[in-house]
Amino acid sequence: MTVVTRFAPSPTGYLHVGGARTALYSWLxxxxxxxxxxxxxxxxxxxxxxxEAIDAILEGxxxxxxxxxxxxxxxxxxxxxxxxxxxxxxxxGSAYKCYCSHERLDAMREAQMAAGEKPRYDGHxxxxxxxxxxxxxxxxxxxxxGSVRFDDHIRGPIEFANTExxxxxxxxxxxxxxxxxxxVIDDWDMNITHVVRGEDHINNTPRQINILxxxxxxxxxYAHVSMILGDDGKKLSKRHGAVSVMQYRDxxxxxxxxxxxxxxxxxxxxxxxxxxxxxxIEHFSLDAVNKAASAFNTEKLNWLNQHYMKTMPASExxxxxxxxxxxxxxxxxxxxxxxxxxxxxxxxxxxLKEMATISGYxxxxxxxxxxxxxxxxxxxxAAEALSVVRDKLAALSTWTAEGIHQAIADTxxxxxxxxxxxGMPLRVAVTGGGNSPSLDSTLALLEQQQVVGRIERALRxxxxxxxxxxx
Length: 471
Ligand code: GLU
Hints:
Helix content is 48%, strand content 11%. It is mainly alpha-helical. It folds into four domains: 4-75 and 227-301, HUPs (Rossmann fold, 3-Layer(aba) Sandwich); 78-225, Rossmann fold (3-Layer(aba) Sandwich); 313-362, Helicase, Ruva Protein, domain 3 (Orthogonal Bundle), CATH 1.10.8; 371-470, Arc Repressor Mutant, subunit A (Orthogonal Bundle). It has a three-stranded parallel β-sheet with strand order 1-2-3, with helices on one face. Strands 4-5-8 form a three-stranded antiparallel β-sheet. Strands 6-7 form a two-stranded antiparallel ribbon. Strand 6 and strand 7 (156-161) form a beta hairpin. Helix 15 crosses helix 17 (419-431), helix 15 packs antiparallel against helix 19 and helix 17 packs across helix 19. The longest helix has 23 residues, at 448-470. The mean pLDDT is 96. Glutamic acid binds next to strand 9. Glutamic acid binds at residues 8-10, 42, 183, 197-198, 201.
């Protein structure tokens, strides 16, 4: 039997991290078993579903690399199919028409609540040959005895007594099939063998199983994934920072880091923290997923992101970094290669966004000196060191890190001063601030003329400041 799993989001918002983790688990089950992964858009709620949300979900899945083998299928395009089954069930008697008015149902509900009972349909039209009226819904004839049992891969055995389930509406008065029914037909039509979804759907499962059984359809296996909480133990929400997957891209995370982070959120394999996709596929098991809610931990995501920035082939990271330069309006076409930037900066930042932000001076003049750094290092005493080092750098016939290193060392030697007295003013002169990778590699990534020009800019700045102070 081919394993077939699915991700079935309702397009009412962006792809959030909880949904993405569910999608990843479902995708891994398919990939681990040489099976198929289906993408289904559950857009039956026409008022809350939007095209923007559909686009955002597809974009999120693509960015994460969770490729699907079939779909996306849209439930709103399959209404004829669902209705065909509802008609068949009406004929066979596993569903019936219910003519109860809103008024009757409201009164029934109120009486039940007043009596301290759980509100449920009382079966008024179930076996009533006289039931009639202008409009009707179709209800599923739920078994009234026995129970529904399933072995959840994550939560273990779960049992619901049929007496707790009432006769579910499967088609509304306007002829539209309802959500739970569509899911049942889809899972059957799409040959789904494993349903991996959020734990908020546990209560739907016995209803769906009963309908599957009434139709003579196979019942898939189920795995209900727990919620993701913020680091304060509350349900993850915007208050905690990013919750949409694409926000993680915008914030400078690599999809590889996000996937690794998500797979570990609620699942473990010994002490291992770093998982390539191949390792995830090899080791992941639904049965090892934790049923307790998992807490989001940004520190750990940052750690993973840095790991992947440092260890992935730079040529691969470069594509993602390019996006951030473009996003920040930095033209990176003239200057060091992105691979060179990654080599000197990956250790120094947590995200690609930060990497792009602090690397602007490699491609364009910095706007202003960092105020604190300039105050501390671009003082009149630095002028001599800067002009000597400028002359030595300008005189180099080849522009290499070694030559640059030597020119700086020679300046210290000639003026009998320590490295810091040349290095820091030079760093501020060339990068605009007090933080950069090692000076020789930073300067080597720039052009000789650029470096000389920036030292001159710093010298002019020192002069102007001294003149201001004198006035
Ligand atoms: N459409 C549901 C949701 O987005 C998922 C239902 C399912 O996976 O069965 O929560």
